[in-house]
Each structure stands twice: as C-alpha cells, then as structure tokens.
Amino acid sequence: MIQTNITFENELQGIENLAEWNLLKKMLCSFSKSTGLKTIIVDTQGNTLFNSTDHEIKDCSFRRTIREESIGIKKCNGIKVCTQIKDCTDRQARLAEELQARERSKVAMRIVESRTMSINSLDKEYELKMMVRNGEKRAAQQLLNQLLVDITEVKYEHFDTFKTRVIELVVMISRAAVNRGADLNVILQQNSSFYKELLEITTTKEICARTKEMLETYMNLPDFNKYQKNFKEIQKAAEFIKINFRKKITIENIAQAVYLSPCYISRLFKQNLGCTISEYITQVRIENAKMMLKSSQYNVTQVAKESGFEDPTYFARVFKKIEGITPSRYRQYAF
Predict the structure, then answer these.
(1) Fewest CB atoms less than 10 Å from the CB: which of 74, 164, 215, 259?
(2) Helix ranges, the chain (H)
(3) How many other β-carbons are positioned within 10 Å of the β-carbon of residue 40?
(4) What are phi and psi of 182, to 5 degrees?
(5) To the nearest whole percent, how much of the chain has pLDDT over 70?
(6) Rg of the chain, C-alpha, whole Å
(7) Bridge partners, residue 77, by sequence
(8) Distance set, CA 53 to CA 15, 83, 84, 196 (Å)
(9) Are 49 and 25 in contact (CB under 8 A)?
(10) Other C-beta atoms within 10 Å of 250: how many?
(11) Of 69, 68, 22, which Cα lies nearest the Cα of 46?
C-alpha cells in the first residue's frame, strides 16, 4: 500500500472544541474530494479519529507528543493527518504487465504478418515473371493487379518508398520481357520514360494505372530474338528428354527443368517441331529401341524396359505403329 503522511502542525495546534474540529473535518473532506485521496486522522497511539469516507470524528486527547521515528515524522504538538492512496499498486502492476504482453503480442503478430506478406509477395512476383517470360498476357495482367493491391495496402512512411517498390516491380517485369525476346534497347527507353513520369505522379491510383500500361506495352513488344530463343529452349527440353527417357517423365517435369510453364513448352514443340511433347518422347524411345535391337545382346523385353516402356506388349504395338513392323521383324532385317 502506498501511504503519504502529511503533518498539519500549525493547523492542528490549539484545536480544543467541536466547532474547530468540524471546520477541520470540512477542510479534510474538501481535500479528499479534490485529490481523490482517502484522508484519516490518527492520534499518537495510532487510533483512527477521523476517516474521510465516514466523516466521523472521535473524542480524544489533543495534547500529546508525536514520536514516529520509524517513518521519520518530526516531533510536534498536535495530531498527525495521514493521507492514504487507495491500495491499487498490485492492480496497476498487473495491468501494466497485461498491456506490455499485449503490446509484445501485437509486435509479434505484425512481424509474422509482415514476413508472411513478404513471402507471398515474392511468390507472386516469381509467378508474374514467368508469365511475362512465357507470353501469358491475360494471366500476367490479373496477377499484376493483385500485386498492386498488396503493395498499396502497406502503410509506408514516405510516398517515395511506395514509388521505389513499384519501380522494383517494373524492373523485374522488364527483365522478364527481355528474357522472352524483346529488344533490350526498346525496354531501356520505355523504362527511362516511365521513371521520369513517376517523378511527377502524386497519387497511388495514377502510379498503378501507369504500371498496368507498362505491362501492356512490354507484352505487346515483338520478339526480335524469338526464333533463336525458342530454339535454345527446345534444345534444353530435348536434352532433358534424351537423358531421362528411360524414366517415367511428364510435361511438368520437363517444364520445371527448363524453367517454363507446361503450356508454353508444349506450344513451342507443336509450333516448331510439329509434334507434341509426348510424341517426341515416344520417338526418342523408339530410336533407342532400334539401336538396341541391332544387337543380339538384348531380347525384346529387355529392349522395351531399357527404352522406357514398362509393358513389352504396349512397346511392340507402338513400335509397329511408328516403324510399320514388329520389333522382332525389325531385328531380323537388321542382321
């Protein structure tokens, strides 16, 4: 309990009748009311003579010497007036601890949310980069809209920080456009123009609109290096197939190996080689089988297995469909 002891030495000396006590009582009640403190009067024996909560004065002897060396109150003639602050220290301490715990919890939640948002943002940015690189215009536009919403929802201390965040996004998109085959000089000119415009823009709405226009421009740029770029990507995919044709491979496996989407790599094969990826894989397997059939070291079942066919019957059917004869007949003609 916090207790404040105040000695009214001058005021208490010479009080010997009820009228004076009533006056003192009013004074102390007024003091308690204005300060919010509980006020009591005790005699030198520690007996309570007045309590501001019940406004009662008890009869007592007024001429005693106060000796309370333990709390350092000086000697005087009269009565000691003590003011007690209500016992709220424990409650205040608990409240302070709760407030601190809540604040720590809020900080932790903000950190978790920030990290989660950062991770989600990086994932989306990577997806957007791949969409731009693969020429998936509509999907890229939709994902850019989501990213711009995420960016605008963040509370930045300075508007320039928001602009910097958008510039980072535009740089990433422009690099993906170059990887897709767009002319580097054209991209650099577009970026320079965008940066100059950005300095004059003062609202997030205008910046978002201009960023969407930039994506539209990038996606519509002609692919000057398209043929060369497509050839390299097809070459990488074909190399992966030739290394792994004995295993069970899917379009997803191939796309992941060459960092392209399954739809895009499938379209590349169809447009440039005139066949699907599955047809190309089958052709690679049959070519390997033909080489093995020229050797008497392997039987047809072994050839099928070593060529990526789990079922020898299915292998024979596919082989005849492509070559026009069965594997066994092909072996006879090979020798």
Answers:
(1) 74
(2) 9-12, 18-35, 89-134, 137-153, 159-180, 184-200, 204-220, 226-244, 251-257, 262-273, 277-293, 300-306, 312-323, 327-334
(3) 17
(4) -70, 150
(5) 61
(6) 45
(7) 65
(8) 22, 12, 12, 74
(9) no
(10) 12
(11) 68
Q: What are the DSSP calls for 167-186, one per residue? A: HHHHHHHHHHHHHHTB-HHH
User: In whole angstroms, what is the distance from residue 232 CA to residue 148 CA?
Assistant: 33
Please give the C-alpha separations between residue 216 and each of 46, 170, 193, in angstroms, as whole numbers: 88, 12, 15
- The DSSP symbol for 49 reads E
Residue 50 sits at φ, ψ, to 5 deg, of: -145, 140
* Per-residue confidence band for 251, with pLDDT thresholds at 50, 70 and 90: very high
Confidence at residue 252, expressed as pLDDT on a 0 to 100 scale:
93
pLDDT in tens, 135-166: 888 888 899 998 888 888 877 777 888 888 88
CA distances from 36 to 33, 52, 57, 86 (A): 5, 11, 20, 9
Are the C-beta atoms of 312 and 301 separated by less than 8 Å?
yes
Q: In degrees rounded to 5, what are phi and psi of residue 240?
A: -60, -40
Mean pLDDT estimate for the chain = 74
Least confident of 91-105, 142-156, 165-179, 243-257: 91-105
Strand partners, 38: 84
Q: Which domains does the chain have, with CATH numbers?
A: 3-87 (no CATH), 102-220 (no CATH), 226-334 (1.10.10.60)
Give the integer Cα–Cα distance in Å for 159 and 203: 9
What Å distances lie between residue 29 and 7, 35, 144, CA to CA? Answer: 16, 10, 70
Q: pTM for this structure?
A: 0.37
